[in-house]
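Example 4.3 (complexes with small molecules)
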Amino acid sequence: MKLEIQNLSKTYSNGVQALKNVSLTIERGMFGLLGQNGAGKSTLMRTIATLQDPDEGSINFNGIDVLKKPEELRRTLGYLPQEFGVYPNVTAEELLLHIADMKGIANKGERKETVEALLQKVNLYDVRNKKLDGYSGGMKQRFGIAQALLGNPQLIIVDEPTAGLDPMERNRFYNLLSELGEDSVVILSTHIVEDVSTLCTDMAIIGNGEVVLTGKPDEVEEALRNKLYEVPIRKEELVEYQEKYEVISQRFFAGKLMITVLADDMPSEEFDAKAPSLEDAYFKILSES
Ligand code: ADP
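Answer. The structure with adenosine-5'-diphosphate bound is encoded below.
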């Protein structure tokens, strides 16, 4: 099971080059695509999901030429878009039954059985007869997963899934997502580093339409071992430190500004060594670009 993306490029009619020669090989499991807003993630997700065409390049999933045979991919695709659109005035169960019908589950009894099992899985069974427009953000996201899973897709695309969820809802959603990668290719597009470090076995970072890094989250972190140092400073001192050191990130901590510096050796006595995180690796790449 494999998704192969080769030399994908896309320039919008307003001249924005959203994808520049993007190539990625994505295997079974959970793959994290990390990048800032505007990096090109949604353009890539929509292109893989056959919702828009690239100018150049090719996409192959398990032998399906995706750009030439979009309808073939759609039969095995589950897609949870960033914005799930307007929530209509129908219940979760009604809408899932309707989508199941559209996805080709023709038998009425089978449809009902499939939908009820999915509602159980995403923990919405008890509220299945509630109207969707009354659902919370977390419930809507879980409904989104249920509809994406209809028809047992082998390729699942989830675009910015945890934006706007509170910590409890996010946790529940993580639990659900973590089961998905077992027998399909799942691509999780996000600007939240924690989503990738918590869930993904492989990842890529995309910046300005280009793939700037691929690897396993723990290897990406490990590359920074013994190279990071941190020190709390006053806000006014930041420029001074930036001139002297390679400051890759800064955050407020207990009223002070904690800066992280990249260096081969301890820069000076005031610094403490810092264990690397995926967030550090991400900030390092952003600071370079
Ligand atoms: P991301 O999902 O990483 O936030 P997008 O793929 O949405 O990134 O956007 C990449 C770039 O393409 C941005 O500069 C965005 O403004 C631009 N863009 C996205 N969609 C369109 C469109 N339909 N027309 C013109 N520009 C677009």
